[in-house]
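Researcher: Next sequence.
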Amino acid sequence: MLNMDRLRTLCLVAELGSLADAAAELRITPSGVSQQLARLEAELGVAVVEREGRGVRLTDAGMLLARRGAGIVSQLERAESEVASLHGEVVGQLRFGSFVSASRSVLPQTVAALRDDHPHLDVTLWEGEAEELLPRVRRRQLDVAVVDSWSTHPLEIPADMELTPLYSDVAELALPAEHALAGREVVRLAELSGLGWASWSEGTQFHDWLVQSLRTQGVDPRIDFQVADYATHLEFVGLGLAMTLIPQLAKVSVPAGVVLVRTEPTLSREISALVRRDNDRPTVRAGIDALRSAFAQL
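Model: Next structure:
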């Protein structure tokens, strides 16, 4: 009979690609991971990893066992959670991931509600953008990720994952108060020129969304200020140095000298809970329900 802890360790090495990353996820040392794999090999009578430079790679037997083992581990975790929930309790671990503005505006209330309703549930949060959250859900490092998908830059979801809609959001244009278009109720994106833009760093989803949204309207934006913080973007706008697009969910205190106006076309996004299709444990369902309630209160 295979030891499940050792099987979990092998699956993590396969998913993360290294002993060190698997050790960090399991909160043990890399030598501890090596010992687990050595014991697994002794149980099987066959090698599951072999040395490759400074690291290791899975053997054919190791890859086969990891493919089969991922489903076994998932089913076992689901069974453990469901058995515990027979007594009316949601117990175990729930690992959230979320993009920045949702983690600030919604996740604290979500976690607090879950801990009130399910005192034996261990809830954690890891913050990142969609391009970071999606692979962590796929590798089972996160159970539920709050992600966004813009109408002008939709998020591509792999077939083994699914989305549960949570909230519809729109972006507004932030202009310096003295800007010639600041007195309008609605500004066409195609009219924008002159000033540079404040945005997130190149390569992030928000940066790509802003650039693509403007280019579809014939505007090739000059990104002068790349900062991972909406409040800082607005400070540059307030001093007459830039324009920016800011989602309503992300709206922080608007400094003096900034005017927010609606855009034409409207820039909308859907915020959803992302999970693996094979991960519908009671803890996950409780987490999604709590997210729905928290977003409904906005």
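Model: The first helix runs from residue 4 to 16. The chain has three domains: 4-84, 88-166+270-296, 168-267.
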